[in-house]
């Protein structure tokens, strides 16, 4: 069985990108079910798949986050990776699907978990917002705050990889990827054709599809008046080539194969990284 890719809500389990995309494991109502039931479910998943990578939002309910850490601690398992990159919810759902694509390949669990950190660099995630007064995840100047109070104002925002914010108008533009991508759009309580009519053509998007808006998006962006978007690499062969082109090493603590300087399963950093931290 392939390594399990788990998400904390059904709205984070996007439809398969291709026929090889493995299903997501949905940890539904993790903080509401009895602890022993949650422990049993995760233990059975580990027994079945060997390793579990939980892709979790930074704005997930505090009870869910606590429950995940409690389960991992009680099971005393280094086979559960909690991966929480600083991506908006739609971008996170896209990343989880990319890991589900790669889970069908001959990648070890440690390399697959490490691939998440690598692939975030190729995701451009943003939104069109009707207000930025409660946006605290992207720097917002005083002028933008003032313009938020003007009826009908809309703002184009990029949260990742580099923060950007513009008030949408005839000259508005946002810097995007310099490589071919697909785009996913999730509509909230806002009407706009700027993404499909202006942004996608400017970014040379190769395909645009719609998805339901994740429940956590309104919390992340500070408003329900939004349309969230994300560009990504859709092709499994490209994703696989990116991951396998990076040098692999063994985690000096748990022994699992990884790419990069940190093991996602046991959180150990490489001895070189630790040396730099203590001598820097």
UniProtKB/TrEMBL annotation:
Lineage top rank: taxon: Bacteria
Stated name of the protein: Uncharacterized protein
